[in-house]
Amino acid sequence: MKYKALIDQMTLEEKASLMSGKDFWQTQDIERLGIKSLFLADGPHGIRRQEAAADQLGLNPGIPATCFPTAATVANSWNVNLGEKVGEFLGEEAVSQQVHVLLGPGVNMKRNPLCGRNFEYFSEDPYHAGKLAASYVRGIQSQGISACIKHFAANNQEERRMSIDTVVDERTLREIYLTAFEIAVKEGQTKTVMSSYNRLNGEYTNENQHLMKDILRGEWSYKGVVVTDWGGSNDRIAGLLAGNELEMPTSAGQTNREIVDAIHSGKLEEKTLDENVDRLLDLIFTASEIYEKPYKSDFDVEKHHRVAQKVSEESIILLKNEDKLLPLKFGKKVAVIGDFAKDARYQGGGSSFVNPTILDHTMDCFEESGIVSIGFERGFERYGKKNAELISKACSLAEKADVVFLYIGLDEAAEAEGSDRKSIKLPDNQIELLNALHEVNPNIVAILSCGSVVEMPWIDKVKCLLHGYLGGQAGARAILRVLSGDVNPSGKLAESYPLRYEDTPSYHNFPGNEASVEYREGMYIGYRYFDTAGVDVLFPFGFGLSYTTFEYSNIRVDKDGVTFKLTNTGDRAGMEVVQLYVGCQSNQIFRPKKELKGFDKIFINAGETKTVAIPFDDKTFRYFNVLTNQWEIEEAEYDIMIGASSVDIRLQGSIYIEGTGAEAPYDQEKLPSYFTGNARHVSKEEFEMLLGRKVPASAWDRTKPLGYTDTIEQCQYAKGFTGRLIYHSIVFAHWVLWKMGKRSSANLIMMSIYYMPFRGIARLTGGIVNMQMLDGILLMVNGRFIKGLRHVWKERKKKIKAQKVLS
Ligand code: BGC
Q: For residue 765, what pLDDT is reported?
């Protein structure tokens, strides 16, 4: 142990006290030993350091900070150098606010387009997400503080995120849901990992020995700290045994006592506690070093804003450009329509919410773009209410214009932590507007603002489509620069756009049932499914247009990688995202038709040719073998494909690879869906065959009284009237708020109350309610109201007395 001498000086109580927060954002300090607190702050695309009231819901504003484009946006740049830059700037701002651990980036896979937090995640592909995440981590940590990749792992939905059991087979877990984390750990060398709220194959992730010990600490040699997601600690001792050093936020001393008791009773060895303390101390000392010397306590607000703009510019995707309407010809008269042009839609809701230093709105930046606007009309109400007058005014303006810039997208409440979307459609009132505009002026350029996939049955009604995703505080100006042609778009999609939601491979298994979600589609998420099963999509993974054109030639494949030539055949400089996909010609071991195994972004002048090299690495040919329980390589001929997108393969070669000789684990006849890739509708029996065991019960056991890990939502079948009343009051409050149009507040109810396990009442109230009082509350909801009330009262008095003794 690195800090043995220091640990030897600590009392047992002091050691235990380090294992949970001092308050909502800080770790415990021990002044007499010179151990300082760490400050942890969100988040993934801007610092959210709260000075006053603390919350993890994005309710109270943080100190102003630059709001960079969200991860889903930067992912479209496919530029790891840019990712590293974003990390550096985030790190610099974190230092200026004396933050030690920056809670990001989010590395979870986009399993399903409805996930409410997809805007915070990079990709549907683990290799792509991993490379970008690692680049952020390198950037953040270059400033001397720690990044914190999250949410580890298999947390791919918001619904019931604090209780759901993710049931996933080992190979899919490794190849799809863990690979991005693996890359961020190994290549980014992150110093902190945040465990997720959910269970993984039956156990909470922070208590899951297989995930935490075998894989994270064992196979990946991770030496850093694991922090729980806020309020995510269940059994603190089980967490410590799995190597989860830090519980956040504070448990107001409760779990400290549990730790001390566990040592006394022999449930936990002191050596295990010491090892956890040792790793946490390492983080405390290394992430504080920067503050020992003079450090920059401010940052150049304007410069950071400009950087945020550059990042946004490189992440915008041109999805359609009929008649080469874009870049807009000089002098064309433009009607600007859409609420988002007045009030930019630039980030999502929840814990990642940043209080921006500056905020660009389209209409404020229009003049400097050089584009001639003949006026602006809102066109629709942001939160979906129909308004014929707005449509008619918009049409009158559109009639007079050469071109219509139509700003459409999703509102803030649609994309927020804590709840998933109900559909992937754009609101009806926006589509009605589009239809009406199309009647009067077909030259429509749609500008889309949202952080996740939407369905586009209306695509034929627009000539051009520019997807800005959530571009951060300078996103509006960045979009104008692409429209005017000052910037040549170079973003490509990091997720597939299905023709309709029903085509999504996890359609039948999202968000799962009451107690669990079964990942029956296995590894076939995103393009892995569409491509293998031959299902058409609207826009494929990796797709994006440019104002110039590129030609690919001269592919050469050898044991180290692939090289080819790329020529800019158009008349202006541009950047092309080149993608390496690999497929295996043998069908012994089922796998997707092709998988991304490398990529690069190349800047290239008009008429210029460059030689591009994409090396193979340890992930190029590997698959996880469930018999040998390790990564293996199948001996086979492999297709090496260079694409401009996952379906637009421009060059193809092949290579024979000698394998590791492991026995193939599958019986093709028993796993037909996985061998064909038609994995959208897998039967329970076939999934169990893949899983190697029976699936657990997916419904709540309504016969049992409610306990710590049951959620408030489960009060609907509580024995006690009080429990059921609580449930119905919450549902009613949610309904009223939703009807009143207060959708963010309605979401908050779901996030902070409805889906919360009972233990969360004790874990997230900073000691106002302790576990003993919670026992009383549980008695009340379980039908023993008077006894429960007395219990709460008695325990409350005890708590107050104990607090008085301490002070
Ligand atoms: C989120 C985390 C976040 C934490 C602290 C949780 O609700 O899931 O991503 O870092 O709150 O705000």
A: 87
Q: Do 272 and 314 fall within a single domain?
A: no
- Residue 195 CA to ligand 1 center (angstroms) comes to 10
Q: Is residue 410 part of a domain?
A: yes
Residue 143: give its domain's CATH number: 3.20.20.300
DSSP 658-693: ----PPP---GGG-HHHHHS--SS--HHHHHHHHTS
Q: How many domains does the chain have?
A: 4
AA identity, residue 417: E
According to DSSP, the β-strands at 225-227 and 537-539 are unpaired
Gap from CA of 469 to ligand 1 centroid (Å): 22
| 207 CB near ligand 1 (under 6 Å) | no
Distance 229 CA to ligand 1 centre (A): 6
Counting beta carbons within 10 angstroms of the beta carbon of residue 12, is it exposed (0 to 12), middle (13 to 18) or buried (19 or more)? middle
Which CA distances in Å does 515 have to 7, 520, 687, 746? 41, 15, 17, 23
CA of 55 to the centre of ligand 1 (A): 9
Does ligand 1 have an atom closer than 6 angstroms to the CB of 56?
A: yes
Residue 291's pLDDT is 97
- Which residue of 49, 57, 158, 351 sits with most ligand 1 atoms within 8 Å of its CB, as the best mutation to test the pocket? 351
What b/e sequence results for 489-507 when a residue is b if at least 16 CB atoms lie within 10 Å of its CB, and e otherwise?
bbbbbbbbbbbebebbbbb
Q: What is the DSSP letter of 390?
A: H
Ligand 1 centroid–CA 756 distance in Å is 14
Query: What is the position in ligand 1's atom list of the atom closest to the CA of 55?
Result: 12
Task: List phi, psi (to 5°) of 763.
Answer: -75, -25
- Please report how many Cα atoms fall inside a 13 Å half-sphere around the Cα of residue 489, on the Cβ side: 29
Q: What is the pLDDT of residue 277?
A: 98
* 3-class secondary-structure state, position 776: helix
Claim to verify: residue 384 and residue 466 sit in the same structural domain: yes
For the Cβ of 351 lying below 6 angstroms from any atom of ligand 1, the answer is yes
Q: Comparing C-alpha atoms, which of 199, 200, 177 is closest to residue 711? A: 199
Can you tell me whether residue 376 is helix, strand or coil? strand
Distance 146 CA to ligand 1 centre (A): 16
- Which of 26, 227, 229 for a ligand 1 pocket mutation test, highest count of atoms within 8 Å of Cβ? 229
In a domain, 696, yes or no: no
Q: Are residues 85 and 223 in the same domain?
A: yes
What's residue 98's pLDDT?
A: 97
The reply to whether ligand 1 has any atom less than 6 angstroms from the CB of 120 is no
Per the rule left: phi > 0, alpha: psi between -120 and 50, beta: everything else, 766 is: left
> Is the whole-model pTM more than 0.85?
yes
Catalytic position from the list 169, 229, 420, 503: 229
Query: Do 169 and 692 touch, CB atoms closer than 8 A?
Result: yes
**Residue 732, domain extent:** 712-806
pLDDT value at residue 805: 80
In a domain, 66, yes or no: yes
List all residues 6 or more positions away from 506 whose beta carbon is below 8 Å from its beta carbon: 111, 112, 519, 520, 521, 525
**Would you say the CB of residue 50 lies under 6 angstroms from ligand 1?**
no
150 lines ligand 1 (CB under 6 A): yes
**Last residue of a domain, which of 665, 681, 697?**
665
Q: Which residue's CA is the nearest one to ligand 1's atom 3?
A: 351
Does the annotation count 775 as an active-site position? no
pLDDT of 62 reads 87
**Parts of the chain with a pLDDT under 50:** none
Asked whether residue 330 is domain-assigned, the answer is yes
Q: Is the CB of 229 under 6 A from ligand 1?
A: yes
The strand pair at 622-625 and 630-633 is best described as: antiparallel
For the chain, how far is it from start to end, CA to CA, in angstroms?
35
Domain end call among 226, 260, 292: 292
Ligand 1 pocket test, candidate residues 57, 227, 417, 420, most atoms within 8 A of CB: 417
Burial of 772 (0-12, 13-18, 19+ CB in 10 A): middle
